[in-house]
Design goal:
With about 400 residues, the chain is α+β, with helices and mostly antiparallel strands. It has two domains: about 230 residues, 3-Layer(aba) Sandwich (Peroxisomal Thiolase, Chain A, domain 1), CATH 3.40.47; about 150 residues, Peroxisomal Thiolase, Chain A, domain 1 (3-Layer(aba) Sandwich), CATH 3.40.47.10. The protein is built from 13 helices and 18 strands. The strands form four sheets. Strands 1, 4, 5, 6, 7, 8, 9, 12, 13 and 14 form a ten-stranded mixed β-sheet that branches. A hairpin with a 3-residue loop joins strand 13 and strand 14. It is globular. The structure holds coenzyme A. The site of coenzyme A (COA) has 22 residues, from helix 2, helix 7 and helix 8.
Length: about 400
């Protein structure tokens, strides 16, 4: 039985800052951010968007009534969770009006959470082939103003329906995974910003990629020329390129050219959104499929990396007519409708966070065009609105 991605959609907030302008404000040459890091625009989450609303807005764009009935597993992959106890999945389940006879849980392992969710969803579908699973990677990447990580922030979510006989991509079963306890990136419970050893995390990302790629080749006998493209977890778009370059010499010239061209296509969305942590790899897949006509039946390599760290390499096969099941025009509209804010406005939005002393707050959702917004916190409980259900 084929199991894989039946639908895939994403959401990113309506405001962004231009990276060249951010560079000037930080006394850095614009090319450092646009070429050296490889980012053009950075999505910013207004106070009315959190990991729950980003996830719910992403899922809202892909699910229909049949999905609402058939989804009986909701996995919320995130490292920007809003509660130490209650999972974001339960809020999303309610906001989307899903079948009550469902499991809903949150998974955490830095940027690897959504990949873990997909692999678990595959097991669930293998046991329950007539059901569907909703897996979401949702995050707000925050390093802090004037930090070296600042240029690699972003916000957004990717939602996927995992099912039998998937219409977009069948997931193959030759996965290779690796865990090693390292401190390259982490966020202690008391901090709303990440701590990062940037250079070390870059090194470990590449090391993990090299190890899982070697093991994958040994396990499957497949090589680079068997991959039409490789999508990477993209904390910033230069990162995957650095990893890809370490293996390119294994391939003949035409395959190298193809992989580099497809790499470029797989980074377009990420370049304009920034790092969305758990969803980044899947945003890269969407970018590849929606900005380039990749042949049906192609094998796509996927490298997932979550600092701390867990890495995984796996592959998928594009299904017949898969492009019909993408939402290319919807995503074009989403990008086109975004508004630029100045660096000063971005700094103000960044500093405007929810109270952390337990006090209440009422938020104005009228300026946020998203269907699902955070409307406030009352008696220690977050309240959400779905503007489509008035
Ligand atoms: N034109 C073009 N490129 C330029 C440039 C210019 N004027 N000025 C600098 N650069 C290049 C540098 O050569 C470097 O490229 P390289 O990495 O290919 O050598 C790149 O821009 C970044 O410069 P660097 O000095 O290394 O940046 P930094 O010290 O500010 O930190 C990160 C960069 C990515 C380490 C930092 O943003 C970070 O910690 N991010 C968060 C962690 C992360 O994303 N980890 C990834 C693994 S999950």
């Amino acid at each position: 039985m084929k199991i894989g991605i039946d639908k895939i959609g994403f959401y990113t907030p309506h405001i962004f800052v231009d990276m060249a302008k951010l560079a000037l404000a930080r006394n850095v040459e614009p090319e450092k951010f646009t070429i050296g890091i490889g980012q053009s625009k950075m999505a910013i989450a207004p106070i009315t968007q959190d990991s729950v609303t980003l996830a719910a807005n992403a899922a809202l764009s892909i699910i229909d009534d049949e999905d609402r009935e058939k989804i009986d597993l909701v996995i919320f992959g995130s490292e920007s969770g809003i509660d130490h106890s209650k999972s974001g999945a339960v809020y999303v389940h309610q906001l989307l009006g899903l079948n009550p006879n469902a499991r809903a849980v949150e998974l955490k392992q830095a940027c690897y959470g959504a990949t873990a969710g997909i692999q678990m969803a595959k097991g669930h579908i293998a046991l329950n082939p007539d059901r569907k699973a909703l897996v979401i990677g949702t995050d707000i990447a925050r390093y802090g103003l004037n930090t070296s990580g600042e240029s690699t922030q972003g916000a957004g979510a990717v939602a996927m329906v995992i099912s039998a006989n998937p219409r977009v991509m069948e997931l193959e079963n030759h996965n290779v995974y690796l865990t090693n306890d390292i401190m390259d990136f982490w966020r202690p419970i008391y901090s709303d910003k990440a701590f990062v050893d940037g250079k070390f995390s870059n090194e470990q990302y590449i090391l993990f990629f090299n190890k899982v790629w070697e093991a994958y080749k040994e396990k499957t006998g497949l090589v680079l020329s068997d991959m039409e493209a490789i999508c990477f977890h993209l904390p910033y778009t230069k990162m995957g390129l650095k990893a890809l370059r370490t293996v390119l010499e294994e391939a003949p010239e035409d395959v190298r050219e193809r992989l580099l061209a497809h790499y470029e296509a797989s980074t377009t969305y990420n370049r304009n959104v920034g790092n969305i942590y758990t969803g980044s790899l899947y945003l890269s897949l969407l970018s590849l499929l929606e900005t380039k006509e990749i042949k049906e039946g192609s094998r796509i390599g996927m490298f997932s990396y979550g600092s701390g760290a867990v890495g995984e390499f796996f592959t998928g096969i594009l299904q017949p007519n898969y492009r019909e099941y993408l939402n290319i025009s919807g995503h074009k509209r989403l990008f086109a409708s975004r508004q630029e804010v100045s660096v000063e406005e971005y700094e103000e939005i960044f500093e405007k966070t929810l109270p952390n002393d337990g006090s209440d707050i009422d938020l104005d959702v009228s300026k946020d065009p998203a269907a699902i917004c955070l409307s406030g916190v009352l008696d220690h409980k977050r309240h959400y609105v779905n503007k489509l259900h008035k």
